Amino acid sequence: MGNFQIALLPGDGVGPEVVRQAVKVLEAVGRRFGHTFRFREAPVGGAALEQTDNPLPPETLRLCQSSDAVLLGAVGGPKWDDLPSGRRPEKALLGLRKELRLFANLRPARVRPLLVDVSPLKRPYVESVDLVVVRELTGGIYFGTPRGWHQEGALRSAFNTLVYNNLEVERIARKAFELARLRRKKVTSVDKANILECSQLWRKVVTEVSRDYQDVTLNHIYIDNCVMQLMARPSQFDVILADNMFGDILSDAAAILTGSIGMLPSASLGGKVGLYEPVHGSAPDIAGQDLANPIATIESASLMLAHSFGLHREAAAVETAVDVILGSNYRTMDILQEGCTRVGTAEMGDLIARKMETS
Ligand code: IPM
Ligand code: MG
Question: Which domains does the chain show, CATH number per domain?
């Protein structure tokens, strides 16, 4: 039976309340399957800024590095919006990704048959959507230098650098192809190669890598067209491979297909320790009111079980428990439908955790 140490970084806004629900579910997994999960908590983002003046304190980073996996809630909020970019809560996320070498971000978006009508898109469009955005996470314009501000007289400018090398593109492309092999064997690589040199390199390298994966079909698509296709014909996609910024944009767009961003989990992989977090942000407008949907975080914990601990049966059991509870018509506010019972964050967590143990 396994013994796993998990670093908990609840963070800001709804972060702490959704992480609490995922912990309940993991504890239930432990009881049912005989594993021991040990949790150690550390501040990150705004919560850390309040205590230490640093959004990613060194002790928090050390805790993550010495754990088997990290579960993060969310960071950021209006209180810290005016800070310079180096001290904003979001900086902690980028620091964690870089320090833990998490170059591969997987963001699955699967439309559950039960929730088809929650999506603002019409039923036939979203019915069979099952895709994963594979986002490059430690390069591109998020990290490129030089970056900064420049002022000459009254003229103010700001600049960023979009840069990738072939090794960075190759390793994320391999992740996408490997994943496609376990799915429907289709990779759609996203770029803006009609304009950007960086995208031209991206397209070249992805094409070279594809020769090692003859059983996987590769298509290239421009980012603008990809966003349109995601809304117009989303079921055509299997694995979407994108750079850091395009992947950020596409994963929010994909959330619309599933009905609520409160349903989207993510896994960040590549280094020794994986990081798992919901795709949604800190949602300060609903924080502390027991309104947030904890399913994205619970499903992130399920990704942790599978990817970091190799506990595939346990991960599947979490998925089933979520399906059963949704099938019993329990809904948080964001996915509420007629005839369903509305529950809060904590009750949704309790229902899923209890189902885990009893099914
Ligand atoms: C995400 C978020 C982050 C990002 C922000 C909060 C830094 O939008 O994880 O998608 O842009 O990567
Ligand atoms: Mg984002």
Answer: 1-107+261-359 (3.40.718.10), 120-258 (3.40.718.10)
- Spatial contact of 60 and 9, defined as CB atoms under 8 Å apart: yes
Residue nearest to atom 7 of ligand 1 (CA): 90
Distance 73 CA to ligand 1 centre (A): 12
* pLDDT tens string 230-239: 999 999 999 9
Report which of 253, 221, 134 is spatially closest to residue 183, judged by C-alpha positions: 134
- Ligand 1 site residues (CB inside 6 A) read 76, 90, 93, 248
Q: Is the pTM above the cut of 0.85?
A: yes
**Of ligand 1's atoms, which has the minimum distance to the CA of residue 94?**
7
With 80 as the cut, is the pLDDT of residue 359 above it?
no
Whether 142 sits among the annotated catalytic residues: the reply is yes
Atom of ligand 1 nearest to the CA of 137: 12
